Amino acid sequence: MLTPSMVLKLNQQVALEQYSANLYLAMSAWCAHKGLEGSAAFLKAHSDEELAHARKLFDYINETGALAVISAVEAPPKAFGSLQEVFQKTLDHEKSITAAINGLVDSALGEKDYSTFQFLQWYVAEQHEEERLFMSILDLFEIMESGGRSLFMIDREIASKGK
Ligand code: OFO
Hints:
Elements: H1 4-33, H2 37-63, H3 83-110, H4 114-145, H5 149-161
Helix pairs in contact: 1-2, 1-3, 3-4
The chain binds hydroxy diiron-OXO moiety.
Hydroxy diiron-OXO moiety binds near residues 17, 94, 97 and 123.
């Protein structure tokens, strides 16, 4: 059984994950508007993943007999300066989500709530993957900016040889 304080914190995380879904969907819309269809599709799919993260928390709260609460979420920005800025913002956002998850893990340990602690391990691993993914996308901008188009092609070729 969850403490009231843990229920509140998990519900806050549901809202954060829903905000993430809306943020990535807004980014997807901006990319589509600019004709950047690849990034638009990627970000839309990522928005779906965030909804799944929210739903997983929602299910966990309900399974414990507590009440999952759906809150109002702030509207995300709708305009961005560039594609690089979009992905810099995704990384910054994911870092803030990692901090929120770490805070939840701390609270679960502090309360000796080992069930929630165990449940949250999935999110800890997921945040590691998401930060890595967005950092790798930002690396592409740096390679291109430093005139490394041929380096980029060679790297893609090497990756395909490993398959
Ligand atoms: Fe992109 O992160 Fe959810 O948890």
